[in-house]
């Protein structure tokens, strides 16, 4: 069989171009204009590169379209114009980058009064960014002649597109020598100092936030490129300024001068945290050395951060899933906790002395127990404890200063020791606060294990044990009871292999079929992992599956679901085991007899229609009617005045496919 091909097929765009008087707008109305442009349609590219067309394309991305146009089509042509100008076609790049009148027209966009239209700002930034990467010499030379370029960009820093433009200048210039010239130019323009000035408490929050993010990105980009570009021996001038004691001190001054707002504290602390990063993940782990000048600048202001923990910026009460929180922790105090954790990880002697003197850790520990549901805070406190024990282990016991810090940290560990000694097993495992397990229990368990391990074999164990021996005998007795009973039982429950919860299937020929229901210990482990552990590379293996079962199989498209078919869910055969498991689970939440029984049959009102996701072939449709909870569970609705009735097991045959 032969197919007929029309090898002389001409696109509609070519037909338009053959017509006299065709306009740019007519071409932009065509759906395939971008595709034809990127496919190097010579006739189209020659038309687009004409002076009047290039002028019109630049006008579209830099001037507001008429306000009377329909909103959904108002930015249609500006968007297409931007895509054409950034289509990475050499003819268009050469025309745009080599024509100074077009560059002047682009630059004029920055000379407008703020605020810029955010969509047009993104078109402008994308176009200039493409030229920086493709026509580097011409564009950099043009921008360096504009003495107010940096001032205009910072004047519009409230638009995130201006952040992207600055980062393009730092990261997209090649070769390395030209990049260093650009960095020196930006440094001469005092880019870092001017961004730091925008962090002042009196500045607009949007400007503060974007300036903070820009500084953080510059730090990371500069460090990454310093590691990757081995041929560059000259230090990055922007990073040098950022890490200088003078600039960090100026940043801290701007954060705390005048009224201390949450925005200024959070944005400023984010820059400090980025400066203190010693490791960062990406395509590969990278390690950095924290400059001591950063620590020397932070040290005098630790008392200011301490004051923030005591008197944070005012926040109104918020409603949470566990009730009304009259005084939320707030982002400011959380960022202070993150900063303290990062500072302790540096193991800097002077910093640790000041933290000890201020009793900062005691205050963080108070917040740990006050805000029992804030896991972000709990993680930072756990990191602080780990750093303290690590610092104590590596201290120079012959150095008086190190010895003082060791003594201070040891006293903190003893205080923590006493708190843990008073914890009962019910506090760790079972109900607290209305039948719910407290949200900080997972982290508290890990902290307790860390303390125990260091008491037993840590390098500082002798110092801490000497202090513990001086405690009253009843305190030491409570600690031994805690470690031998409470903590041991908690760890036993938390270390049961999760795989046991998924051994649900067994051979149908096996007469001695095991119960398919997960036991109590597995449930506790699953809940613990859900609370505090991250998903790791062996996550799939822990759940009894392997990578092969998730790959495509040409011979059997259902191969990934074979395991599901093996599950034998015989309800009748396992009724006793299931009922026993349910009763054991329910008892843990029976706080008082007056509480409502969640298992009582009751009528459920569905007042809305619920539609399934499109990936499923069935649609659940509930009309505004009362649906009896016993309709599919083998029992009848309980009549008024009647006693409790057995609900029996579910009758799955009564479930019907959902209607569309």
From TrEMBL:
Signal peptide bounds: none
Cellular component aspect of the GO annotation: cytosol; nucleus
Biased composition (Low complexity): 627-645
SUPFAM superfamilies membership: ARM repeat
Molecular function per GO: protein phosphatase binding; protein phosphatase regulator activity
Database matches in Pfam families: SAPS
Region (Disordered): 627-660
Highest taxon of the lineage: Eukaryota
Composition skew (Polar residues), residue ranges: 646-660
Family from the record: Belongs to the SAPS family.
PANTHER family: SERINE_THREONINE-PROTEIN PHOSPHATASE 6 REGULATORY SUBUNIT 2, SIT4 YEAST -ASSOCIATING PROTEIN-RELATED
Protein name: Protein phosphatase 6, regulatory subunit 2a
